[in-house]
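User: Can you help me understand a structure? I only have the sequence.
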Amino acid sequence: MAATGDEAAAMDSISREPAAVSAGLITAASATAQAERSDDPPETPSSAPKKPGANSDGSVETAEEAVEPAEPDINELCSDMFEKMAIFLQGELTATCEDYLLLENMNKLTSLKYMEMKDISINISRNLQDLNNKYASLQPYLDQINKIEEQVSSLEQAAYKLDAYSKKLEARFKKLEKR
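Assistant: Let's start by predicting it. Here is the structure, written out as tokens:
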């Protein structure tokens, strides 16, 4: 079917005018096309937009106004967001508490290790003190041993000298005996 009247004028102006002006004409043309079709029920804003070229009467394609989808209940979305945020924050706080408990346990173990090391060092210090006291009590005997060692070495030197002298005497005696 060919376009008649206002529709034909709108189509001619669409082909000649820029896009901004043509958008207003398209809506005007669609309004007149709907008025001419009295057997179709008027469209409500909530109805789905028709696809271009899907008119049953074969007329010119018309642009339909885009309808935004119905917004979900904001209260429901807010409560869902708050529930999820509460779960998230609860998880974060639980993780932080677990970290602090772990740190507390590590501090207790470290403290126990340091206490053990302190006891060991006290025992080592006590044993070292005892050894120093024993060494001090043995010092006079060690000094005597050192003196005895010196005397033994001097006696040894005297014994070597005596041995050498006795060998000389023996050699002289043998010489005299031969004569």
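Now, to help you interpret it: The chain has three helices and no strands. Helices lie at 6-16, 19-36, 74-178. Let me know which part you'd like to focus on.
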